[in-house]
Every structure is written in C-alpha cells, then in structure tokens.
Design goal:
This protein is mostly helical and 359 residues long. The protein has one domain. The protein is built from 14 helices and no strands. The protein has helices at residues 2-7, 22-50, 76-90, 96-122, 130-150, 174-192, 200-217, 220-226, 235-255, 264-281, 288-291, 293-311, 323-329, 334-354. The chain binds Muraymycin D2.
C-alpha cells in the first residue's frame, strides 16, 4: 500500500518509477521484514519473558532439552507482524493472492496462538485438542481452496516436475488436494520445529526458492520460455516470499543455537501453511515435496515411528521421532544436526530449481 502512495508521485519524480518493479519491491520487503525483526527482536523477547510466555519441556525428551526450560516461546508474534507489515507496505493491494496469503497467515497464526496460549496457561503440553486443531486447519484451508477454485482464470491443472506436457486436470478434486497440501505443510513444519533454527532455516530456503518460482510464473515471457504455467499476478507472491525470507533471517538471528526464543505454534503452523499456499498459487504444488523435502522427511519419520510403535506394541524404528531427536540421541551435538539438516534443505531446493530446466 505504501508503494502505491509513493508511486502516485512518479510523474513529478521519475526515480519513483523503480517502485513499479517487482524485483525492487521484493528486495524492499525482504529488508523491511528483516529490519523489523532486528529492531523489535530484543524488545519482543523481553516482553515474552515478562509475560512469562515460557516453554514447557517434556520429561521424556533428549536430556539436553531440559536446559531449554523457560526459554520464551511464541516468537511467531514477532515473525508474523513483520511479514504482514512488510507485505502491506510493498505488495500490490489489488492483487487477490496478497489477501489470500494474508488470510492464511492470520488464520493459521490464530490457531497456533490459541494452542500456545492454552499450553502456557496450563503450564503443560496440552494445548488445543488434536481434533479441534485439525478441524480449524481444514476449515481455513478449505476457504482458501474454494476461493482459488472459483476465482476466474485460476486453473486446477497440475504441473508435474520433469514432465512438461502432462497436466492432469483434477476438476473439483483440486479442492481436497489444496486442503491436503496446506494442512500437511503446516503440520510438517510444526513437527520439524524441535531444535534451534531447525524449522526457520529450511523455511527461509524454501521461501527463497518459491520467491524465484513466483517471479518466473508471473512473467508471461519467461513462463512461456521455461514452459511453466503462467499465473497472472503471481509476481506479487514473490514480494510476500521476500517478506518471509527477511523475517525468517531476522528471527534466525535470535533463534540460532543457543536459542533466545522459539517461534511457537503461532509461527510454525502459520509459516508451514503459507508455504503450502504459495506452492498452490504458483502452480508448483507437487515440487513442494522436494523443496520442502526436509519437512516431508520429518513428518514421515513420525508416521512410521508411531505406526510401528502401535503395530508392535511399543517397539521403535528410530531412537525417537521426529528424526532430529534420533540423531541427537545417537550423540550428534545439536548444532551439528541443525546445520546438516540445513545442508540437506539447500541441496533439495537446488534440485527443485533444476526442474525448471530439466523437463
Ligand atoms: C511440536 N515441539 C517441540 C516450541 C516450538 C506425534 C508426536 C511425534 C508429536 C510431536 C510433537 O508434538 N511435535 C510438535 C514440536 C517443542 O517446541 C515448541 O513447539 C513449537 C513448535 N510447535 O516453537 O515452542 C520443543 O522443541 C524444542 N525446540 C528447540 N528449539 C526450537 O527452536 O529446542 C523447539 C524450537 C521445545 C524444545 O525442546 O520444548 C517438541 O518437540 O515438543 N512429539 C514429539 O516431538 C515428541 N516425540 C515423541 O513423543 N516421539 C515418540 C513417538 C512414539 C511418538 C517416540 O519416538 O518415542 C518429542 N518431543 C519432545 N521431547 N520435546 C519427545 C521428546
């Protein structure tokens, strides 16, 4: 919105023409969100501490986690406003994707906030019940899916990595697929958020990758050259991805090992859902399994561990799930697990980007 106000004056000051460019506004939105996190980071952490928004640590966890008792949580309350403000400043307010993404951030943020709030009030790990949390997530994702489905010009054909000529048309089946992608991404990121910087690092990498996808999908000539689906208006999604990258880096400053703050469900549920929504809107939904492969890997480790545990009446595949705890219990130092997982996330993002050419 701010950019629209500034742009009004371009006939009098030609330098203001630069605000027309998505690339320039993406850089501005990245820096704005980063700056908000840097400027308000320490203040937010001390407010959370003063309000006693402290993490409860489970008894059965890896022993080093007990030392984290009392670390302020709900750092999402810093990340989300940084993204929202930066988006409101630099994205085009006439673009539907901008408002839909703000809706996803706010609705999933509210679910996470409620969950965190209940856990802190009860001083335990019991937040919203699994059923309530899941139903609210499905409801929010359904609103998104229905708006996209009925939005004129949005096509529900799938874009498959490596295959440029096959675009299955799912018709109304696209609606449950969108719900699945958004809810799965939200929960997978939530499961990954168990070591310092483990979720925000790969999230920043994934949003950086989707920033590129969104820019390319929104550019009619480049999209046609690369033979990827052209999505009118998708360039504005790049501005929002920039805001998430900026806020992610700004938050990582404080969340890096040893963390001064955790993001809480308010951060993890919301950022995961936005990642899923961005994948859907840029028509790069299937490749999310690769871009966010680390989150898939973490979620699968839980599914297999819990399934095997129930089937065998108490036996385990991993020492503990999600899989990052397995490596901790094998004796890897926490920073080693984190940095190695970041390396995997970078490799996956690079492989995903290569599919733009390998098709
Ligand atoms: C939340 N949350 C962290 C923090 C963060 C079904 C089951 C596998 C579910 C899973 C689960 O509940 N996962 C979702 C993971 C928690 O972090 C808080 O939660 C927010 C994210 N939602 O922002 O506020 C703890 O993670 C650590 N942490 C850091 N640094 C960070 O930057 O060190 C978080 C962020 C924090 C802190 O210790 O307290 C969490 O892990 O609870 N459950 C589990 O992950 C549990 N796994 C388990 O029970 N596995 C079983 C199988 C059979 C289900 C097994 O393998 O035997 C483990 N969780 C913990 N300890 N904490 C068990 C051990």
């Amino acid at each position: 919105m701010l950019y629209k106000l500034i742009y009004i004056f371009h006939p009098y000051l030609s330098v203001l023409n630069v605000f027309r460019y998505i690339t320039f506004r993406t850089i501005l939105s990245t820096l704005t969100a980063l700056l908000i996190c840097f400027v308000f980071g320490n203040w937010a952490i001390s407010r959370l501490r003063a309000l006693q928004v402290a993490q409860y640590i489970r008894e059965e966890g890896p022993p080093n986690h007990k030392l984290k008792e009392g670390t302020p949580t709900m750092g999402g309350c810093l990340i989300l406003p940084a993204i929202i403000l930066s988006t409101l400043f630099w994205a085009d307010p006439r673009n539907i994707y901008v408002w839909l993404l703000l809706f996803v951030i706010a609705s999933f943020g509210a679910i996470g906030f409620l969950d965190d709030y209940l856990k802190i009030r009860r001083k335990s790990n019991k937040g919203l019940s699994g059923v309530s949390k899941f139903s609210l997530q499905v409801l929010s994702a359904l609103v998104l899916a229905l708006v996209l489905y009925f939005y004129p010009g949005f096509n529900e054909k799938l874009n498959l990595p490596f295959l440029k000529r096959i675009h299955p048309d799912l018709g109304w089946g696209y609606i449950p697929l969108v719900v699945f992608i958004v809810v799965a991404a939200s929960n997978a990121v939530n499961l990954t958020d168990g070591l310092d910087g483990l979720a925000i690092g790969p999230l920043t990498i994934a949003f950086g990758c989707y920033l590129v996808f969104a820019y390319l999908a929104g550019h009619v000539k480049i999209a046609s050259y690369l033979q990827i689906p052209y999505v009118a208006g998708a360039g504005e999604i790049a501005v929002i991805c920039g805001a998430v990258v900026g806020a992610g880096l700004g938050f990582l400053w404080f969340n890096s090992y040893p963390a001064e703050v955790f993001m809480g469900d308010v951060g993890s549920l919301s950022l995961g859902a936005v990642l899923g929504a961005v994948a859907v809107m840029t028509k790069q939904e299937i490749i999310l399994a690769l871009v966010g492969g680390l989150f898939v890997f973490e979620a699968l480790s839980v599914i297999f561990q819990v399934g095997y545990f129930k089937l065998t009446g108490g036996q385990r595949i991993f020492r503990m799930a999600p899989i990052h705890h397995h490596f901790e219990l094998k004796g890897w130092a926490e920073p080693k697990v984190i940095v190695r997982f970041w390396i995997i996330a970078i490799i996956l993002a690079l492989v995903a980007m290569s599919t733009l050419k390998l098709r």
